[in-house]
Amino acid sequence: MAVYRRSYKPYSGTLTAPWSRFLVLFRYSRRTLFRSKLQTGFFVACFFYPIACLVMIYLAHSIGFLAKIGIPPSLISIDNMFFFRFMSVQGVLAFLMTAFAGPGLISPDLANGALPLYFCRPFSRAEYVLGKSSVLAILLSEITWVPGVILFLIQASFAGASWTWENLWIAGSLILGSLIWIAILSMLAMALSAWVKWRVVAGALLLAVMFFGAGFAQAINAVLRVDAGHFFDVGYLVASVWMGLFKVDAERVISASQAWMALLVYSAVCLWLLMRKVRAYEVIQ
Amino acid sequence: MSDRIVFEDVSKFYGEILGVNKVNLSIPPGITSLVGPNGSGKTTLMNLMTGLVKPSRGRIEVLGIATDDPEKMFRLVGYSTQFDAFPKGLTGFQFIYSYLCIAGMPAPEAERTAWQAIERVNLVDAASRKVAAYSKGMRQRIRLAQALAHNPKVLVLDEPLNGLDPLARAEMIALFRASAAEGCYVIISSHILHEVDVISDQVILLSNGYVVAEGQIQTVRNEIQEHPTQILVRCDRPRDLAARLFQSEYMIEASIHKDGRGVLLKTRDADRFYLAMNELALDGIQIESIAPADDDVLSVYEYLIGNEEVVR
């Protein structure tokens, strides 16, 4: 047995707060995302429609200008439908953004076997998933509820306090509706990213889940003569929830509460799939 | 705080697959090598030690800290896996720096510490290049740097010498020794048995998920009764020596060394043999040296596990 001097000195400096460590993943992943010019270009393009909405809000309050160019003021109505349409457009863009950015979040770490490197630190699986999902959550927030709330505030500043108080629920619907969509998209993208190591395939699968899901739902409804097929259509479910939130009058075969439940089940399944794969080790049978 | 890494009746099953079974260990400071063929449970043992895998049964403590307390434990433990595991697109420096940040080091401190670790593994010139462009030896070294960057007391290194050229290997061994000399626990798994023999203070031999032997290699060798001890005696009259010794019942075999100046003996009772050697020396045989010929890791490995997978 060797004789040891025991001169070892551990690190004794300050440590960052444990809750903040997931932000390291956010920082690196976001930087990696925006290295792509296509990604950056698409991100910029996502603000075109909010800018168009901003112009519409301005025009709606410029009655003199509208009269001058011959557009009746009633044509531009800033109400729940206006913000529902805003959500629908930005929701589609958020989905496309997720298909582009989501698959690259976890699959490279899995393909490179890098997960043990994260987990041999004071860093849990939940923090890893939080760090990765925060990239999508913040990115998608920037193109959904953040511009939505800004538009609402601008409209409120034009329309006055009484309109604001009467329609404050729209701001809540914007935030809640966006968060639901962001949660579903993030979960789906990360679960697929964790199970499919090839990034392109994971992106294609996300598109397939949405589009083939809708097709599959229609096929089930047509063949079995039921309405339950809509439960396979994530887009339909989210639209049902949004319609409830924005008080849109339309005939839906699935109620908002049923859609809520179905989306919760989808999220739970995605989370389960994710946690099955995000492990420090992989057992090869 | 305990000063050992303790495994108490630890078993790990991956479904129906046995990882390790009924492991009881108490690992002291210094360099400890895990030796065993592929699939013997070395990596599982390391994953258990670092808390990456939960045991199916039993208890593990690293210097008195349970492995399911990562906030405390990973201040003490640095782990380098055997796989080429690098997140995409990072440079050598970013690789070390980002993991120090994840471990909770503030940015300026992490930067300083990352450079220190990079210096320790002699990669300063390559630190700004992407890890993807590194050679295998450089990857091995940057992996080692990330394991020791936060100055852990327990270094767990899975196959750290694989892919290194002789010079880099010597540098790494010097690094392990320096860490051990500071009172750290360096746990190494390796197939390169002659190096294990040279660098290890103690070895743990694994086979099919079971610990077949542990401790200092000479002690382990002495406990293997079914294989007679081999001793090489250098002397001026090897034939006389062999003839005299063969009169004792504990001698099994003797063969004259090919240079004619020594005899390789096999004995069942090394203690009695050494006593007899004293008498022979007094009787006029000029003995130059007496050295055990099979108390190295390679011999013990062959006796206990077999000679498959051995890298000489």
SSE layout and pairings?
The complex is a heterodimer of chains A (285) and B (312).
Chain A: H1 22-33, H2 37-45, H3 48-60, H4 63-69, H5 80-101, H6 103-111, H7 115-119, H8 125-143, H9 145-159, H10 161-166, H11 168-195, H12 199-224, H13 234-245, H14 256-277
Chain B: E1 5-14, E2 17-27, E3 30-35, H1 42-49, E4 57-62, E5 65-66, H2 70-76, E6 77-80, H3 92-102, H4 107-120, H5 136-148, E7 154-158, H6 166-181, E8 185-189, H7 193-199, E9 202-207, E10 210-215, H8 217-223, E11 229-235, H9 238-245, E12 251-256, E13 262-267, H10 270-282, E14 287-292, H11 297-304
Helix pairs in contact in B: 3-4, 4-5
Structure description:
- The complex is a heterodimer of chains A (285) and B (312).
- Chain A has helices at 22-33, 37-45, 48-60, 63-69, 80-101, 103-111, 115-119, 125-143, 145-159, 161-166, 168-195, 199-224, 234-245, 256-277.
- With 285 residues, chain A is an all-alpha fold.
- The longest helix of chain A is centred in the middle third of the chain and has 28 residues, at 168-195.
- Chain A is globular, with a radius of gyration of 23 Å.
- Chain A starts with 21 loop residues before the first helix and ends in an 8-residue tail after the last helix.
- In chain B, 36% of the residues lie in helices and 28% in strands.
- Chain B contains eleven helices and 14 strands.
- In chain B, the strands form three sheets. In chain B, strands 6-7-8-3-9-10 form a six-stranded mixed sheet, sandwiched between helices.
- Chain B is elongated and about 75 Å long.
- Chain B starts with a strand and ends in an 8-residue tail after the last helix.
- Chains A and B meet through helix 1 and helix 7 of A and helix 2, strand 6 and helix 3 of B.
Give the integer mean of the pLDDT values of chain A.
87
The number of E-state strands of chain B comes to 14
Question: By helix and strand content of chain A, what is the structural category?
Answer: mainly alpha
Question: Mean of the pLDDT scores of chain B?
Answer: 84
* H/E topology pattern of chain A: HHHHHHHHHHHHHH
The poorly predicted ranges of chain A are: none
> How many DSSP H or I helices of chain A?
14
Helix-strand sequence of chain B: EEEHEEHEHHHEHEHEEHEHEEHEH
Largest sheet report of chain A: none
* Number of helices, counting only DSSP H or I runs of 4 residues or more of chain B: 11
Main-sheet strand order of chain B equals 6-7-8-3-9-10
Give the overall shape of chain B, derived from the CA principal axes.
elongated
